Amino acid sequence: MRCLPIFWLPIALVTLFVTRYAIGVSTKLQLGELITTVIYEDKPNEDVLSEIVKLDGEDLKSIPFIETKVIDINKVHPLKTLFALSSKYSHYSGDDLNLSVIIFGTSITCLTHKRLALHLALMIRLIEQDGGKVYARMRTLVFGNIIPFYMDMLLSVHRNGDDLYSMYKVIYDMNSLLEEGAISDYQPSIGNLKEELKKLNTVIESSCVVNKMKDYCENFKLSELGKCSDFITDEHLISSLVDVKTSLESLKANEKALLNFFKEMDLFRHMDEKVWTKLLKIPQLPTHDTEEFERTEPLPYRAEIEDIINMRNSSTKYDYKTKDENNAEASKLPAGVVKDGGSTDAPLELSKTETPPE
To answer: Region Disordered: start and end of each range (predicted)?
Structure first.
């Protein structure tokens, strides 16, 4: 791995965070379309939409009548609440859109931090074990590739990525040391990684209703860990009952899950991946050592979803008209299409001035 000189990393990251609101900023219209699309694609976005969240009172100060929109800010169900806030008209209320972005961004924060916290706990367990240190370089290499893209997901919905940046810095320093061959003293790295894990857990505790690693780790379905709650300590670490093989295989499985989750969440992009790669000198994923790292690609669904959305938009493109009881023309949608809470059950007649779509 070609590493940036250490003193260049803070400069690159400061540049990135200073310019993050000037490069690839999501507008309110784009955020509204994003949330509408996510609700429409509720099945592929099930993990995000089912992450019950707590809202920060500071974030809500600008939202009037919050008590009429959210019954309990400490227990918010994203799918139900986002659907309720979605307007039947073509544009969101500004306040409702802001609240939707806060809810959705908090849900993304919960899910990304949980996935990374479990991975970090597995990393710590691996390098604490005598037989696990030899695998540290490859695992930190892959982890260093993953973290910036999770930062990107958060920035795309205007959330804070500072905690992930701090963790990336620690992993970057570890990669630099490993590249130089100084692999004998892992203790400082273990201490730093545990501090980063505490930061992640603080965010999880304040943002997520289900916030104990024992309670959420099984959602990630790591087969090697089995009933993983048995192996999580009260400090959100992996217990000494887990051997090197289990730590290593669980890390590999979780790496694939982390990479695939980012790819599946293709709606959440702040900047092009190439910008991140060049700016931070992100290590490239290995392509030659398939035994140490083998990527399992997710099943594609985006093209199919886009076709469905395009067909839906095309079906409402033409304005069908029928005569009302006063013999005046009234705009109607085709049979079976719901608009503004209503429905049309009978076939509608085309106006004589209209021609059917080809």
So the answer is: 316-358
Hey, how many other C-beta atoms are within 10 angstroms of the C-beta on 187? 9
Is 107:78 a contact under the CB 8 Å cutoff?
yes
Enter the DSSP assignment of 115: H
Give the type of residue at 190. I
DSSP H helices, 86-212, are 94-128, 136-156, 162-180, 187-207
Three-class DSSP category at 332: strand
Q: What token pair was written down for 225? A: 């860990």
Q: Within a 10 A sphere around the Cβ of 2, how many other Cβ atoms?
A: 7
Burial of 33 (0-12, 13-18, 19+ CB in 10 A): middle
Q: What's CA 199's distance to the chain center, in Å?
A: 18
Query: In terms of Cα–Cα distance, which of 273, 43, 57 is closest to 153?
Result: 273
Q: What is the pLDDT of residue 25?
A: 52
In total, the chain counts a number of residues equal to 358
Residue at token pair 């400069």: 11
Assess contact for 124 and 196: CB atoms under 8 A: no
Please name which of 157, 140, 123 lies closest in space to residue 31, comparing C-alpha atoms.
157
pTM equals 0.74
Other C-beta atoms closer than 10 Å to the C-beta of 151 total 28
Residue 273 confidence class, pLDDT cut points 50, 70, 90: low
Q: Could you report the per-residue pLDDT of 14-26, keeping only the tens digit for each?
A: 555 444 444 455 6
